[in-house]
Amino acid sequence: MTDSSQLTNTSWHNQNDPTPLVQIKGVTKKYDNVIAVDNVDLEVFSGELFCLLGGSGCGKSTLLRMLAGFEMLNGGSIHIDGINMQDVPAYDRPTNMMFQSYALFPHMSVEKNIAFGLQQDRVGKSEIADRVHEILKLVELEGFKKRKPQQLSGGQRQRVALARSLVKQPKLLLLDEPLAALDKKLRKQTQFELANIQEKVGVTFIVVTHDQEEAMTLSTRMAVMDAGRFKQIGTPTEIYEFPESRFVADFIGSANIFEGRVVEDSADRVRVQSEVGEIIVDHSQPLKLDTKIWVALRPEKIRILKSDEIHTGPNKVSGVVDDIGYLGDTSIYKIRLSNGQIVDVTAPNMTRPMNKEHRLTWDEKVTISWEQSSSMLLTS
């Protein structure tokens, strides 16, 4: 397995100005005896689209609200653009926030909703008109400026809320579950639209989401949160292909995890005696013999061979097809191994079947196999 440090490390900050736009140091937030955010550190650079990803109650929205100035810190500090935000109220921060509910005024037209914040800031009428026109063009809603929110689709209301947040030209835009109210198909489409708009305007986005696919699609970098702490920070590729723990491997996407012990460690590979047999893993980091280890394997990296197909080489296990899920573009196979463990395998349906039957059937004997480079070694 290739070490994640060998990946090309994309720098999201200006080489001439390596100072982060956002610096979070030792930030803690408590509610009575409950620790919502636990001594976290984070740097976000100008121009990033950074995602805070985690399940309900992990602390991601609380951290976003502290950035916005809606919640007080119990410890640590937050700097935005080099300024300590401790005594800076929400309305004076170089930030804006887009709420999950969008919070549009139902009695106002699209253009009046967008202009509202500028009017409150006493911006001149001519400048307001110019900025509203430009932002409507950016979000492709020029023909809808006279409509009320209830006359728009969910995706259009989302773009109005985004336009209203961006028209004030914040240095940092905070988005709390911005796509949660949309149906699945529209959410997928809007993910790319949101990323494209962010790239065009160049404003730094910090997005809170519980949706792994959304975070992977949107972000330049992301932080996986659990119980108020960051479990891993990195690019989507680093998080998915090089998880640092079983929690991250299982939380991002899906992973089959086998427990075992190191029985051989050479220069470029490790041999693990696991609960499903011997596993060979490409690996460049030294490990002590007899170390307890976990091998994680993504479902899409496993091949399924029928009983009459031959596989040569290591990393193969026999089993029986326990269940099949047909999703159209892919199929999910649940393979029961001899020890009773279920292994998930996904396979693309690359050709249209000649009849209505599956290539594989329930209770069929099969062999699963995978490349040495496909396994991920985890020490925790």
Description:
- With 380 residues, this protein is of the alpha+beta class.
- It folds into two domains: 246 residues, Rossmann fold; 125 residues, Nucleic acid-binding proteins (OB fold (Dihydrolipoamide Acetyltransferase, E2P), Beta Barrel).
- The chain is 22% helix and 34% strand.
- It is built from eight helices and 20 strands.
- It has a six-stranded mixed β-sheet, sandwiched between helices. A five-stranded antiparallel β-sheet has the order 13-12-11-14-20.
- Helix 2 runs parallel beside helix 4 and helix 3 crosses helix 4.
- It starts with 21 loop residues before the first strand and ends with a strand.
- About 2% of the residues have low confidence.
Short note summarizing the structure:
With 380 residues, the protein is an alpha+beta fold. The chain contains eight helices and 20 strands.
